[in-house]
Design a protein that fits this description.
With about 150 residues, this protein is of the alpha/beta class. It has six helices and three strands; from the N terminus they run H-H-E-H-H-E-H-E-H. The protein has helices spanning about 10-15, 20-25, 45-50, 55-60, 70-80, 110-140, and strands at about 30-35, 60-70, 90-95. Helix 5 links the parallel strand 2 and strand 3 (about 90-95). The radius of gyration is 17 Å and the shape is globular. Residues about 1-10 have low confidence and may be disordered.
């Protein structure tokens, strides 16, 4: 969804304003989470996003994790970012190593074998994500996932 260049919520004001972000998230059927490695960790801003995003916005919706550099962000996201908001990470992920030599607009800047592999892997992973999105939508629409008695997974 295009945003016309306006910053939203926390970035613009320093105060979380759910009305500015929630409609975009709530209207989505799936997510692609892109996480660079930051000293072996997920960047703090992304961790904060998962504390802010609620189950009504991202809950029971599939997400594909894409990381740059290593698998550490994949493990960190799978371990700790889903509990309260109930985002559903699909079993696939994309880990882009040597990022400077792949996915560049100028083909001469790319390692041909690696670039071809990552383009194919990304396309396939997105197809898997789409299948999960189509499969989970009826689950959310059924209402079975709405239960305030168990708001935080306990």
């Amino acid at each position: 969804m295009r945003t016309t260049g306006k910053q939203c919520g926390l970035a613009a004001t320093g105060v979380y304003q759910p009305s500015l972000r929630s409609p975009w998230l709530a209207a989505s059927d799936a997510f692609v989470i892109i996480a660079p490695e930051w000293h072996g960790q997920v960047p703090a801003g992304l961790k904060n996003f998962f504390l802010i995003a609620g189950k009504n916005e991202v809950g029971h919706k599939p997400a594909l994790i894409v990381t740059v550099s290593s698998a550490y962000p994949v493990a960190k996201l799978r371990m700790s970012s889903y509990k309260n908001n109930r985002i559903c990470y699909i079993p696939e992920q994309v880990i882009i190593r040597n990022v400077e030599s792949v996915l560049n607009t100028n083909p001469e800047d790319n390692s041909p074998d690696a670039d071809s592999y990552f383009r194919e892997r990304i396309l396939w992973s997105l197809q898997v994500l789409r299948a999960y999105a189509e499969a989970l939508k009826p689950v959310r629409e059924s209402g079975i996932t709405s239960n305030d008695s168990f708001g935080f997974g306990m």
